[in-house]
Amino acid sequence: MFLKAVSRLSKEFAHLQKSEFENIAKNLLTYIKQDKQTETLVEKLCQKLKNSTLQTEWRNTAFCISQLKYTDKIFLKLLENYDCYKERLLQNQDVKEYFLALVQSSKKLMKPEMKSALEDFELKVNLDENAML
Q1: Mean pLDDT in order along the chain per 10 residues (133 residues)
Q2: In the chain, what are the domain boundaries?
Q3: Closest among 37, 41, 132 to 90, alpha carbons compared
Q4: How far is Cα 59 from Cα 61, in angstroms, rounded to an integer?
Q5: From CA 3, how far away is CA 129, in angstroms rounded?
Q6: Distance between CA atoms of 95 and 26, rounded to whole angstroms?
Q7: CA-based nearest residue to 16, from 51, 57, 50, 52
Q8: CA angle 37, 39, 83 (to 5 degrees)
Q9: At what angle do helices 93-107 and 115-131 cross, to 10 degrees?
Q10: Cα-flanking dihedrals φ and ψ of residue 16, to 5°?
């Protein structure tokens, strides 16, 4: 249901301002409460980033990914799906910024044993640009 709402907002309501979309998405995300729901949503949103051709949809999807509450298990799911969105990090600055915001907010919440994985992820997000040159 959430994915359909994001898709429709991105495609049919493309005239929405970035801030308007973000407010709507934040409200919808309050209904995602269970870790299993979040884990499934991360996987589906990553696939959406891979399969979408619209830059607006990339930005909106990345925003949604950045707003989720990450546990260690959910963060590992995001890492597992890295290949789905790595190209989008290069193609769209907003996408990259949302992923970097996710890293910053996660630094405060992650368990110490996950800090290394989070730091590696941050390097991937930042360095991919140079790796592709």
Answers
A1: 75 81 92 92 95 92 94 92 95 95 88 88 78 45
A2: 2-131
A3: 132
A4: 6
A5: 28
A6: 17
A7: 57
A8: 145
A9: 160
A10: -60, 140
